[in-house]
Amino acid sequence: MPHAGICAHTLHVYPDLERLSEAAAERWIALSQEAFARHGAFHVALAGGSTPKRLYQLLAHAEYRKRIDWTRVQFYFGDERAVPPTHADSNFRMAQEALLAHLDIPVDNIHRMAATPEHIEQDAADYAALLRAHLPCDTAGTPVFDLMLLGMGADGHTCSLFPGSPILHERVRSVGTVYVERLQSWRLSLTYPVLDAARHVLFLVAGPDKAAMLRQICHPDTSAPVVPVQGLRPRGQLEWYLDAPAAAELNP
Description:
By secondary structure, the protein is an alpha/beta fold. It starts with 9 loop residues before the first strand and ends in a 9-residue tail after the last strand. It contains seven helices and nine strands; from the N terminus they run E-H-E-H-H-E-E-H-H-E-E-E-H-E-H-E. Helix 7 links the parallel strand 8 (200-205) and strand 9.
């Protein structure tokens, strides 16, 4: 069953992607300070896609960059395509070019999610082991991120949790494998238990193509199919950062 309150969490609506990204950058800074005070590090899972790219670019600018102790930020990834890190479709490449390459940080602070079609199951196991080694865990042994950045596709997917994928039923492994039939490609993705365990989840959603799906999940029709975003059951704080076009079909 979908989590009935997924849209009962805080919704912030901004005029455009630029304002959304500026607000998200300020939230990033505040959450990093909280995490530094709590345990001396800030563990962040980065999202791929077009919407978070502007956030990363802003954080790389001097006015934001100087406000964060980047040497204490640990970077991870929510999902990745099974392509080389230099490939145009790589989430790592996007984050590297928009943010990571502009930071003076140890290379060990960046935990790339390596994925290859030939060894995809081992890649998933390896990244799960990396998370257990570097992150604090809850009582169930699930890695706990300080910040989980998420996007949402027009079909209601997040990370690489696509409608109809077997990974939607994964409740044990923290990292799963996904074969996207329509794209004929393999991916790795964090699973629901890890998304749900994060201290803070920020959904960054922009563009008019997301409006119908946001209406569907915020005003659910029992006859409509459940989409992956509705499967989240966050135990931490979840916030939506929307631009006006994405929020256009939500009731005031």
